[in-house]
Amino acid sequence: MMIAPGKSATSTYNYIVYLFQEKIMRWHTTEQIASIPMRQVGPVKIISAEVNEAVFIPLATLETPLWPSTQRGAMVCSRAGGISVVIVDERMTRSILLEARSASAVYQAWQKIQNKKEILQQVVSESSRYARLLDMHAQVVGTLLYLRFEFSTGDAAGHNMVTLAADHLLNWIVRHYPELSYVSISGNYCTDKKNSAVNGILGRGKNVIAEVTLSRALCRRFLKTTPEAIVQLNVKKNLLGSIVAGGVRTANAHFANVLLGFYLATGQDVANIVEGSQGIVYAEARADNLYFSVTVPHLIVGTVGNGKGLTFVQENLRLLGCLEKRAVGQNARRLAVIGAAAILCAELSLLAAQSKPGELMKSHLQLERQK
User: Fold this and answer.
1) Which residue of 40, 63, 125, 335 is most buried, as measured by CB atoms within 10 A?
2) Which residue segments constitute the domains of the chain, with CATH numbers given?
């Protein structure tokens, strides 16, 4: 090792290490773009208050069988007349955590706070022109107060919006109720990007239900199965299998696969597939038809905000008709409807494949294995 003039071996070594670490830091902080394969599937006919047309759906994924499988679902659903979709609820949440010196002090403070909703809404309005306080819930644990705020957030998914609103609310609360003190801006009662029951009970994101009715002829021709086979598989695999596994408010085959592809393609926070994967498939044999639905209670999407400025994201949102001039919140609602339809297409096709021995592995071998 060459020793710098006037420097000891130790100091020269330390200087070289410093330069190396600085170079590594510069490399790590340089923004890079990761390329992920993306294709459009469809068109799939969608019928809802937000969408009444056939659309192509972009999915970015490394699991290549997802495209043809979702495509098959889109084709058979369109031939059946389309997928009907309804949004039954929408809200974004953030929970703050406070504490006091006694449980009685916490409880008394909560009794007062829940009667201040109009004032709290004024506080929220100071943080955002779009955020609106819809409701709030609390859990008292010893001297701790877990306070869960629920907001409407317009066309944004709303993570940052509700955190900023909660921060304003937290500051107002500790100022007006000095018996309470700050613990955290997020108390895990939200629940953000974690598996929980509370989101399904109280709501987080958009609660969307997509449904379709397929004739026996369509099931046989395109899905190579029968309504009864899919119904039985859904009961034994999705419902009972999820109970055996200890699933939390979930009974589906692979919601997460489609959500990841859809979230990446449309610039969403992909970590939301954690709670997004909690959903339920319901199927019935009705006369000579198959009724098939997916309930996606935590579909968290937005058409504005972080990640939406990327060129490919803008192109995809434009393709989906989600950048039009509409009333506040309607573009995000449209995006959620399309996402739920994509989930149904993929879920239906996968269950059809799994109802027959060997088909699932055969398709993966054909599409993913190189000779």
Assistant:
1) 335
2) 38-89+206-366 (3.90.770.10), 92-184 (3.30.70.420)
